[in-house]
Amino acid sequence: MNKTELIDQIASAADISKAAAGRALDAAVEAIKGALKEGDSVNLIGFGTFYVGERAARTGRNPRTGKTLEIKAAKSPKFRAGKGLKDAVN
């Protein structure tokens, strides 16, 4: 399912226009991004949790040249599925 199909699904389920559903989806995504940027997590009961994971600095290897290089520490967005989502899939 892509974004357009998701917007169509939201519009029909909520009985709103596709434009309104698109704005609502964009607003939800922006709210999640904003919370993660501030270091907060977003908990949607029954669906899951969006959070920021930390990756430590490490040494890597360039596969082409075999040279070692330092990879910087980084933050990465992560998602942990909740029980309701896991049950719906299984």
Automatic annotation (TrEMBL):
Keywords: DNA condensation, DNA-binding. PANTHER family: DNA-BINDING PROTEIN HU, DNA-BINDING PROTEIN HU-BETA. Gene3D superfamilies: IHF-like DNA-binding proteins (4.10.520.10). GO terms for molecular function: DNA binding; identical protein binding; structural constituent of chromatin. InterPro entries: Hist_DNA-bd, Histone-like_DNA-bd_CS, IHF-like_DNA-bd_dom_sf. The keyword Amino-acid biosynthesis does not apply. One of its GO terms (cellular component) is DnaA-HU complex. Belongs to the bacterial histone-like protein family. This is DNA-binding protein HU. The lineage of its organism: Bacteria, Pseudomonadati, Pseudomonadota, Betaproteobacteria, Rhodocyclales. SUPFAM superfamilies: IHF-like DNA-binding proteins (SSF47729). One of its GO terms (biological process) is DNA-templated transcription. It comes from Azonexus hydrophilus. CDD domains: HU (cd13831).
